[in-house]
């Protein structure tokens, strides 16, 4: 493998408080201080003039649908999407078919990752057996098998007692819990945010109170048990406030926001287009703004995509019947830059931090940094380039994206994993 | 005056002028209904498909009758006969209907927005006969038609819609039309079924029946379903009736000339006392008759007919 010499990039590495135009050197798949004159001569040179070089992006919330629903996505295509989006490490959710609640399924997923993934894909396991919310999965064995967290994402553990025991038990293995916060009793048949728009459209509403209640429950359980609970895809202003106050008391919780919840509102559903149907649903402008403020002041820790592929024919239905979820990996950086940097004046290094160092730190992953000695996982992007996203020409097996056909600004040019260029702005290099 | 729409999906999207065009066309068709030969050749040779994926007797019969009065051929498909129960998608079902050379489709579906979805897929006119809790435009048209027939201009007139507003497509379509006609609309019922966010439509919300009914010239009752009680929306049918049921005593709070409406089917003794439903203030059966005239107008206009033609020929 040739060494790499990246020149003239604006290197942004929040982990090392670095933000300056300079050089990056890679040798044997690792970041190094410099290369010798001889090594420089043989190195592959990348002129990154006008580009930002940052740690490969980290997404701790993706759905790759393998095993069981590989017509939507599989670990190969999901990892290609990640590469094209500048991501070098992703954490995949266990709501596969069967759900990843035993070590056999985890081993199957790990084999597929080893064989097919072009970026670092890390599995999670379920909290409860088959995500039924009835009894604890073999969390200890899952930990041993290498899951980085446990979650029933897509679903939410409804029993407070069971969730409490999951916290206590998982803490023994220092395993974080991730929770999709939704009180099912309040969301029966719900397909969008409950509010003025749902009242007009006649669609069944999902009140933000159903999220807030579980957020509050999880704050209470994290306080009581000392376990770390990560609150997935927060969508409501009240939740942000609950988290803010809990954090000020030092409770061991963290939270994520998706690009779609900071970019879009329930007004988008006006034409009943299922490409705007997700769970939790898009909420009001006030909720959206509160989440952005949460990201600004640290109440919300990170950005995660909740990349959720579904085929065209599954999404092409009555709004009530279409499945929840949208693609996210290939548009995440551009959308997040647009909302946070351009519209809300976040500093670029802050946004990079939300997408690299912080998510890696939350899940204790060896990623999200350009420190000397770290794996050379690097993303090069042009923060200004405008491009039109064609989801059908993208790397996913699916194309369910609200940004299909939209012009976005900020484009990934190169993705490097362990010192190897796996995405060059056009194609993904398959493994082997 | 000219009609430029192919579909009738919602009353929200119609202008006041368009509402008036439908009503004046319906007035002309209503005259035809009183003749000994109640049929005109307006849609002769056209085939209308009634796709009723949610059970309905009244609306389907009225559409059926309206189409036949216009000399159209009608085919009715319900949830049992359509392939959607065999797992066929709505897109495939609709495209089959179009491939069978239907000229127009009337759709009733439990999923809000499904008529809009069909209108994007199909090249033929789509008429919404009720989409979930969203809209039921022909009901809103026939209700406002009946009100105008009885009390005249609706501008500034006090109209109360009483009952399960949250889940009611009838309420939503009526609200949209009444607002455009300038009526002063109050929604009344238990707070669980009549949330204050409906004020965003430009109507009043009240949970005090006496205040709401005071001096109202129209009260429209909506059917109360046991299903809502089971879902915990109110404690019991008995309590609903004791709080919001319309009886003789409460009807006295209305304006002396007030009319009582109900889209049917009625729960006698629940939302309305029997003697009121059958009494002189009730226009419930007029609503049924007007439903045919209004639907004839909608089918006629959306298939390319023009209001002037029928208003002059029926005169
Ligand atoms: Zn989720």
Report on the structure:
The complex is a heterodimer of chains A (432) and B (315). Chain A is of the alpha/beta class. Chain A is built from 14 helices and 18 strands. In chain A, the strands form four sheets. In chain A, strands 1, 2, 3, 4, 5, 16, 17 and 18 form an eight-stranded mixed beta sheet that branches. In chain A, strands 9-10-13-14-15 form a five-stranded parallel beta sheet. In chain A, α5 crosses α7, α7 runs parallel beside α8 and α8 packs parallel to α10. The radius of gyration of chain A is 21 Å and the shape is globular. Helix content of chain B is 41%, strand content 14%. Chain B contains 13 helices and nine strands. In chain B, the strands form two sheets. Chain B has a five-stranded parallel beta sheet with strand order 7-6-5-8-9. Chain B has a four-stranded parallel beta sheet with strand order 2-1-3-4, sandwiched between helices. The model of chain B has no long low-confidence stretch (mean pLDDT 93). The interface between A and B is medium-sized, with 18 and 26 residues. Bound molecules: zinc ion. Zinc ion binds next to loops of chain A. Chain A: It comes from Actomonas aquatica. Chain A: Its EC number is 3.5.2.3.
Strand order of the largest sheet of chain B: 7-6-5-8-9
What structural class do helix, strand and pairing data of chain A support? alpha/beta
The number of E-state strands of chain A comes to: 18
Residues in helix, % of chain B: 40-55%
Q: Please name the two chains that share the biggest interface, counting residues whose Cβ lies under 8 Å from a Cβ on the partner chain.
A: A-B, 18 and 26 residues
Main sheet record of chain A:
8 strands, mixed
For the record, the CATH architecture of the largest domain in chain A stands as Alpha-Beta Barrel
Tell me the strand percentage band of chain B. 5-15%
User: Overall 3D geometry of chain B?
Assistant: globular
Number of helices of chain A: 14
Family (chain A): Belongs to the metallo-dependent hydrolases superfamily. DHOase family. Class I DHOase subfamily.
Cofactor (chain A): Zn(2+)
Organism (chain A): Actomonas aquatica
Function (chain A): Catalyzes the reversible cyclization of carbamoyl aspartate to dihydroorotate.
